[in-house]
Amino acid sequence: MALAKRIVPALDVKNGRVVKGINFLNLQDVGDPVEIAKAYQDAGADELVFLDISATLEGRTTMIDMIERVSSVVFMPLTAGGGVTDLNGIRQIIKAGADKVFLNSAAVKQPKLILQGAEVFGSQAIVGAIDAKWDEPAGIYRVYIAGGTKPTDLNALTWAQTMVDYGAGELLVTSMDADGTKDGYDVKLYQALNDVVKVPIVASGGAGKIQDFTEVFQDGHVDAALAASVFHYNEIAIPFLKQQLYDEGIPMRR
User: Subunit details for this protein (predicted)?
Assistant: First the structure.
């Protein structure tokens, strides 16, 4: 039997508030993280992702107190991260109540952090987060770090393989081109990733309508679809979305 697909709302948090932008820019205040997390719990979301989006840029660690508050009101799996630079940072986030920790910028600078985290907490607790943007002249999906502000020399497909080799048990891959546009997920990116890695992939960036979720599950072969705007602004109700996907033959958690 096929594993159930997951619907994952994302809380992008800055200065203690949930925010959302387009292509990582022009951030708008959406509300209180704890209240929003509780609402997603009640709506039947399968997991929740908490991203402290300014931690790396501001050179500080993830807001541990906020993770504690969010984890105290939700019972679904919680993935959190932002600004993690060492094993102790991973430990603090898990101790605060997160089930999984994602590593992005720090992993690029020190890939062994993935290995250390996987050895101590298990691969299932370490999520490799990749912010990728299509680079037409180079013909690759280029990896960006520091909240999508700094390009690297890394090819996202090669980097995905490296992260898995080091022990990442899941990949959270955001298409920067699609982020916040509501024009649909970058299905080609996820198809390419599925050709090179065999761990669960969470697709992020571009959800605008139910058909976008259908396409990324059916054609992109991802395990989970992450979205923010369409859920934050009640443009798509999670129970309705899950029922529609189920009716289309996509295995969903009921």
Answer: Heterodimer of HisH and HisF.
Half-sphere exposure of residue 187: CA atoms within 13 angstroms, side-chain side: 13
pLDDT in tens, 180-232: 889 999 999 999 999 999 999 999 999 999 999 999 999 999 999 999 889 98
**166-175 confidence digits (pLDDT tens):** 999 999 999 9
126: closest CA among 136, 111, 140, 137? 111
Domains of the chain: 6-248 (3.20.20.70)
Contact 197, 145 (CB under 8 A): no
Residue 73 Cα to chain centre, angstroms = 20
Total number of residues shown for the chain: 254
By annotation, the residues acting in catalysis are 12, 131
